[in-house]
Amino acid sequence: MFERFTRQARGVVTNAVDIAGRRKDGYVRPDHLLLAIASIPEESQAAAVLKRMGATRDALAVAIAPETKDAALLATLGIDLDEVRRRVEYSFGEGAWARRSARPGHIPFTPDAKKALELSLRHALALRSKSIDDRHILLGVLDSGRDVKDALSVLGLEPSQVKRNMLDAMKQAS
Amino acid sequence: MEDLAKLTIAATDDHPGDGLRAVAALRRLLDRLEDLHVERARDRGWSWEEIAGALGVTKQTVHRKHGRKFRR
Predict the structure, then answer these.
(1) How far apart are CA B27 and CA A14, in angstroms?
(2) Do B67 and A105 contact (CB within 8 A), yes or no?
(3) By the 8 A CB rule, do A26 and A39 touch?
(4) Phi, psi for B58 (deg, rounded to 5)
(5) Between chains, do A77 and B24 touch, taking CB under 8 Å as contact?
(6) Mind telling me how many Å the CA of A140 is from chain B's nearest CA?
(7) What are A13-53's pLDDT values in tens digits?
(8) For chain A, what is the domain count?
(9) Closest CA in chain B for residue A103
(10) Does the beta-carbon distance from B11 to A77 stay under 8 Å?
């Protein structure tokens, strides 16, 4: 499948892996792909659409902070993550919480992240494009489910709005 | 406190997605704590057998999960 990806699209995928690795999130999720699209350094129509809507690299980096999300989820079980962190730092020393020993080896994609890439292929085919580029990945990512929906909702956005703007921008460009 | 009670009900309520995501977060927390404790035990000279015994898992399991980090 990857042979159809443009150079830039491949860059998005590898950057998403790097982002997940740096953040020590354990898995590559669709929201990492979204952040990677927003972080494309060169000219990118997909990144431009996100930026216009306020979904910049910096905004998304904060929106997908897993700590915040996990703290809320653990609270539903009666666990106070801040308290756990305090105890860990007390027992293991300051900085122990952040210094999580990274598991070596490759970082797996979540099923939704795989789905996002498959959907990007489907979008490219539907739009009669021979290659899969940054815009098709964005469309695939937007259809991939909960993670991206959650990240965008922090910024007050809906996946469907972004999708509409992306499709409009593609129509105007062609 | 009332909020927490409401959230707890939500977690055990009829939305499987919410409950599952909470369990996934718990697993991430568990992995993190396990990493820290295994690392400390190894630094203090515990054998894989002793660590596995304390964790209540087999030696193979603990070695598969943590062994690579300590190959020096």
Answers:
(1) 26
(2) no
(3) no
(4) -80, 160
(5) no
(6) 22
(7) 999 999 988 887 778 999 999 999 999 988 999 999 999 99
(8) 1
(9) B69
(10) yes
